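ping. complex inputs:
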Amino acid sequence: EAGVVQSPRYKIIEKKQPVAFWCNPISGHNTLYWYLQNLGQGPELLIRYENEEAVDDSQLPKDRFSAERLKGVDSTLKIQPAELGDSAVYLCASSLVAGPYVGELFFGEGSRLTVL
Amino acid sequence: GNSVTQMEGPVTLSEEAFLTINCTYTATGYPSLFWYVQYPGEGLQLLLKATKADDKGSNKGFEATYRKETTSFHLEKGSVQVSDSAVYFCALSDPLNFGNEKLTFGTGTRLTIIP
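pong. complex structure:
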């Protein structure tokens, strides 16, 4: 079974440029998450989707970040314009369980962003 | 709000040593508790979990017991191997937080095992 696939693995851009990250979850997983992981820190949730609906985007900085999950399968996270402080690893995860109990999350390898 | 505090690293041990990585939590309700592991160059993966008080999660020789009285979920292994070198994250989810279910992670503990 294929795991969660993310691309690109690495991205280096100059500040004020746009960037996009793509995630393909495990087939059949209805819940998809984007997490932000700063160096030396644990992952922090940016947005959670159940199918194509964003059910928790309270931590997403909406002035520059946007996300979509068309057709409830793969997802794109965009930053425009990028700032120096956005340098981090962007993690995508998926799971089968929705509702009141969070089960096992399957993570991709992450997309490491460096903003110069 | 919910939070997780785990032992700061890095932790360096010799092969076959006993491992403990401390984790304590603060949560409303009765959270589920998890340990995730991130091996070099790989994504995070679930190592073990416990969903109620006194439950013991175990996998790959690692164990952790959900202690409600001390709000702890310490990770232990009796004899570590070089292949256990990784970053370990303690996490919780609060099943009573309907509509806002998510994992809250600790900062991670980097473990290095030397032969």
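Chain A has a mean pLDDT of 91.
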